[in-house]
Amino acid sequence: MSCCAAGSELLAIGTQAQNQANEVLLASRAIGDGIHQTHLSVPGIHCGGCIQKIEKALGDLRGVERARVNLSTKRVAIDWHSDSAPPPLIETLDALGYESHLHDTIADRKDRAPGELVRSLAVAGFAASNIMLLSVSIWSGADPDTRNVFHWLSALIALPAVAYSGRIFFRSAWSALRHGHTNMDVPISIGVLLAVGMSLYETFERAPHAYFDASVSLLFFLLIGRALDHLMQDRAREAIKGLARLAARGALVVEPSGTRTYLPVDEIRPGMTILLAAGERVPVDLRVMRGRSEIDCSLVSGESLPQPVAEGAVLQAGTLNLAAPLTTVALAAATDSFLAEMIRMMESAEAGRSVYRRVADRAARLYAPMVHLTALLTFAGWMIATGDAHRALTIAIAVLIITCPCALGLAVPMVQVVAARLLFERGIMVKGGAALERLAEIDTVVFDKTGTLSLGEPQLVGSHSIELDKLAQAAAIAAHSRHPYSRALTAVGSALFGQRIELTDIAEHPGSGLEARAEGQIYRLGRPQWALADGAGVSPERRTGRVVLTKNGRLEAMFDFDDRLRTGVRDAVKDLIDRGIAVEILSGDQEDPVRQLALSLGVPYVGRVSPAGKVSHVASLAASGRKVLMVGDGLNDAPALAAAHASMAPASAADVSRNAADLVFLRESLVAVPQAVAIARRAGRLAGQNLWLAVGYNAIAVPIAILGLATPLVAAVAMSTSSVLVVANALRLRQPRQAARSPDTAGTGALVQQLS
Amino acid sequence: MEFLYLVPIALALGAAGLGAFMWSLKSGQYEDLDGAAERILFDDDDRPA
């Protein structure tokens, strides 16, 4: 029995290494000359020493051409010769003590917008500063000849700069107009183009006023806003992409002829025989043909205890095989599996959610028609008053320039960038400005239990009441297994390995426990029914998982496990309630554990909810006028995350959920939730203030322009001051006014100081 | 008017700055700012990726 089990263990390890190499191959990209490139995300990189260690170790591997660490993104790019098998990259990093995950290269490199934005920004900055220098000498009273030469020079710089830097706005304005609506880019484009056109005419006419400086610096300020917006989204996206992937990429398929091939998930068809090693995720829905093991469903159903499985059991895609290798048969292709079903539900939930219009867009919808109407009325007024078409047009264009939403374009993005930065320092990633705005509006928080309020990993409870030598004995046996209970035991007991405990004939009995010999005695660590000599009499299955250690069938010690709560759960819930936010628990786990937790937190709960049930619960809350923040991690939460007004997921969440969530928090503490809400609310208030500042600026500047007093100098000064004012107001968000209220200021505050 | 020759010089210097920035952007010098700060301490010859 024991030799047989040891053999299957070996098989499991061998298969796993093979599968890993295959995964490396699947995730790599051919870059020519017989070289493949693989990207690994290594969250543990943090200093120059890491860079050298990793580059040296990977670079010395056979077949590796080059290894390059990127410290900012915590990633390694490895070029390797594809004529041999993939080098053991992940194993090598493991040996160095770095955890690493494969990173899809194919999904990357799609979005080229940031690069274009930064280049446009650079060109606009160059043009704006040089034209400004020329303009200053004009304003300080250059004689007409010099002035005209300078105007020509300005035109020479401004025309290509506007053409290059402005196309981002022109493109967006054009596509909006073509679809029959308007956005912020329409008044910007019209204003800039008219200003440049008029200035050219004035330059030909040797007239005193040209607005090249205003039009280019306008583009410059607006591009700053745009670039900030993009950088914020990029940074969050990068950080989230770097996290562990939890879905299987492929599986080891046994063909009828007996040969084994590693196939990508998409190519698995129903009826194929699949070998599932211990520690592997289930790639598609499977039925067990041979073998016994235990399955961790916490990411899929929210069930917190490992489930024993035997022949005939059905495994849902996304669950984790814990104990022993299984021979299984595929029941469905990837597109019909549980995971795909969740994604479909998520998409329909997302489509059902009302479209959210960002604050700036809402402002623009009011703003654009008003600006154009004002300019038109100004033109008409001056035409009637003076009959001078040239003068009326000049003044109308000056109105357009001065009302150009320079401050408005910066007002919201600037605040959101500062907010994203603050959140980043607290380990929270925001997917974009819209997410932040929605988060500020929420009045109800719905928590998932397993993996969100709790960590989804068992912890030994009451370890102080267990005799130390027995705990050490149990930990020594448990060190030979990957089962979550064994890991929890090892974590507590490994510190106690005083004298080395000699173990022989260790065997894992999947679904039951571990058996080992020491000094001629037989020790068993596992379920009471199996480990105790008279185990049949023990009442089966309690709420918490219970494991016993026996010597020759007699009880030595009992160990109880419970799902560990995240730190800061109580503080987070209390803080949210103090802010006037309703809190609920919505879990797919059994009624009992959910009730216990909900009672101890003093919040309403619903247990045993299906994924569809979660969506309909969130939808019914929304229908009753509540704005829901859904916080969840499992695959079963993904549709509800997409349905909610705003959503948050921990870094340990399933890939799909993490991608569905608006915010992802990386630290263990749940205090991230009230922190994020607080920052989002303050950002919302400041963005509102900024919009009013921009309106106030217009209230002063527009009359001046309508009266025909807006010379290029006035326009330049007015635009710059309003932008500076808005930026300065946004920076007020950094002041830790409310931070004193948040319960973990000691911890986070110190950490933030270290970071910044 | 005798100082007008300074204008093209100023523009040329500005353009040179812009060109240098574009080049550094293109050659990937902003890809890993944190890494660059550490790599300056390494002894072995190293160039940006």
Strand and helix map with partners:
The complex is a heterodimer of chains A (756) and B (49).
Chain A: H1 2-27, E1 29-30, E2 35-41, H2 48-59, E3 64-70, E4 75-81, H3 89-96, E5 101-103, H4 113-139, H5 144-165, H6 167-178, H7 185-204, H8 212-241, E6 250-254, E7 260-264, E8 273-276, E9 286-290, E10 293-296, E11 307-309, E12 314-315, E13 320-321, E14 326-330, H9 338-352, H10 359-386, H11 389-403, H12 406-425, E15 428-430, H13 433-441, E16 444-447, H14 449-453, E17 454-461, H15 468-478, H16 484-493, E18 504-509, E19 513-518, E20 521-526, H17 528-531, E21 545-551, E22 554-565, H18 569-578, E23 582-586, H19 591-601, E24 605-606, H20 611-623, E25 628-631, H21 638-643, E26 646-650, H22 655-660, E27 663-665, H23 672-706, H24 712-731, H25 745-755
Helix pairs in contact in A: 2-3, 4-5, 4-8, 5-7, 5-8, 6-7, 7-8, 7-11, 8-12, 8-24, 10-11, 11-23, 12-23, 12-24, 13-23, 15-16, 23-24
Chain B: H1 6-26, H2 33-39
**Biggest sheet character of chain B:** none
Q: Rg of chain B to the nearest angstrom?
A: 17 Å
Radius of gyration of chain A: 32 Å
Q: What is the count of structural domains of chain A?
A: 5
Main beta sheet of chain A: 7 strands, mixed
Q: What global shape of chain B is seen? A: elongated
The percent of residues in helical segments of chain A reads: 40-55%
Largest sheet strand order of chain A: 15-27-26-25-16-23-24
Distance between the termini of chain A: 58 Å
Enumerate the spans of chain A where pLDDT stays under 50 for 5 or more consecutive residues. Answer: 1-14, 106-110, 738-756
The CATH class of the largest domain in chain A is: Alpha Beta
Broad structural category of chain B: mainly alpha
Can you tell me the residue ranges of chain B where pLDDT is under 50 for at least 5 consecutive residues? none
Please report which band the strand proportion of chain B falls in: under 5%, 5-15%, 15-25%, 25-35%, 35-45% or over 45%.
under 5%
CATH names the topology of the largest domain in chain A as: Rossmann fold
| Secondary structure: number of strands of chain A | 27
Average pLDDT across residues of chain B? 81
